[in-house]
Amino acid sequence: MSSSPVQQAASKRRTFAIISHPDAGKTTLTEKLLYFGGAIQMAGSVKSRKTDRHATSDWMEMEKERGISVTSSVMQFPYRDRIVNLLDTPGHADFSEDTYRTLTAVDSALMVIDSAKGVEERTIKLMEVCRLRDTPILTFVNKLDREGREPIELLDEVETILNIQCAPITWPIGMGKGFKGIFHLLNDSMHIFEPHSKEAGEIIEGLDNPRLDELFGSMAEDLREEIELVRGASHEFDLDEFLAGRLTPVFFGSAMNNFGITELMDSFVEYAPPPQPRETKTREVDATEEAFSGFVFKIQANMDPKHRDRIAFLRVCSGKYTKGMKLHQARIGKDVTIANAVTFMAAEREQAEEAYPGDILGLHNHGTIQIGDTFTQGEALQFTGIPYFAPELFRRVRLKDPLKNKALLKGLQQLSEEGATQLFRPLDNNDLILGAVGVLQFDVVVHRLKGEYNVECAYEAVQVYTARWVYCDDVRKLEEFKKKASQNLALDGAGNLTYIAPTRVNLDLTMERWPDIDFRATREHL
Ligand code: G4P
Fold this sequence. Notes:
The protein folds into 3 domains: 18-61 and 109-271, P-loop containing nucleotide triphosphate hydrolases (Rossmann fold), CATH 3.40.50; 278-376, P-loop containing nucleotide triphosphate hydrolases (Rossmann fold, 3-Layer(aba) Sandwich), CATH 3.40.50; 390-524, Peptide chain release factor 3, domain III (Alpha-Beta Plaits, 2-Layer Sandwich), CATH 3.30.70.3280. The chain is built from 15 helices and 33 strands. The strands form 8 sheets. Strands 28-25-27-26-30-31-29-32 form an 8-stranded antiparallel β-sheet. Helix 12 (405-417) crosses helix 13 (440-453). Bound molecules: guanosine-5',3'-tetraphosphate. Pfam families: EF-G_D2, GTP_EFTU, RF3_C.
């Protein structure tokens, strides 16, 4: 049976994101991937890193950065016979809830670890988000050209801290000044490292190849022993375990030196899953269905300062998009014609002619699209699994002109629907508390309130550790809880009951005291 164009296109797509702690090498690796995929001529043009690195409150600076970073917020490039979509996960100053939500729109993720630093805090958080959907994870250990930690120790750390089994696919021989290259455990071949060389290093087939003795002399025997040991002691790669998110294939190399990346990408396109089925409130949608469907996972504002437009990023889940198509926006029950969606080819925004499952579309948004919105060809579907995440940073909003309260509320309401921040209104007083996961989100809100709603405000510190959404089927228990804990309860932007915990100890004690109440760290959008 011949397959349809949608089935063919879907089977070729691989949509993923990189998760890492700042400075592990995500940007460098992204450049090399695009370079390998033929998407850019010269590695080194993804974005200006230095400006990206420093937190800045300067709005102009932010606009400039965002102008640059949007072109790289989704990158599509061919690799072998696949079409790869790489979704950027803002990581430095621009770390935000978008970073988390982007991970709900991918089918796999690549974890990059600095070989000297091991598993770092941001990586742990991002892994937790991947866990919500059991997303398959590949691992790249970077910077082997520098002195780092023993590879065995690094794998151990990944296994214990991140609770995922490691199956090395390549294995490093030496490190730093003594870095000799990587051995491919499945292909039984050694790739020799030649620093600062534009040529790909020599590949030596077979562990018993005499060429190894020629190159390494007496060290060749140590190398053979080490490889045998690693083969015996480590987990074997198992595709099903990987696809279930329980085992990660591990690769070693140096992004800066373009080394170990071919091995990584060859395995990536072979193992990483094509667009996966997605849950909706009513049924599961398969990527190969002919009818179009997709959901919005991120909204970005003011990308082009000349046009104060907002772009809604939509992940295509099934079917085919063609230019000028009429789509049904399920939440408001309206049909809209999508004439000028953008796609993100090779670091350039282009007008989309067509898009398939796994691809990302940018829809122009004039305030009618919210995070989590589903678009279909008519069926009333609502995709699930695009949650709000409990904020980790909080500020109290102070209005400079009290007469502007109404405009402030309207602005905050809309900005929270767009996912720029989260709003909490305590039951017991008139405070307005904003929550975020990245500190720059607060600056964005102040500037957008001024620019778009003509409201000036500032922030005050507030003693909040975290927020938890409160659920309970037992109405009487819930009423009792509301009465007893009212000083710590608030409504979020959509009117949901939230527990605002001043300290971690307070949260733990409250959860202990109220075992029938469900305190959730995520909440579905609709
Ligand atoms: P990030 O996006 O994850 O934050 O990391 P980024 O790629 O910006 O890399 C962080 C630093 O690590 C950069 O150095 C980069 O050059 C360096 N780096 C990346 N890959 C490797 C590698 O394989 N080996 C070594 N030795 N270094 C690597 P920087 O000095 O902070 O910036 P730059 O001046 O090089 O831009």
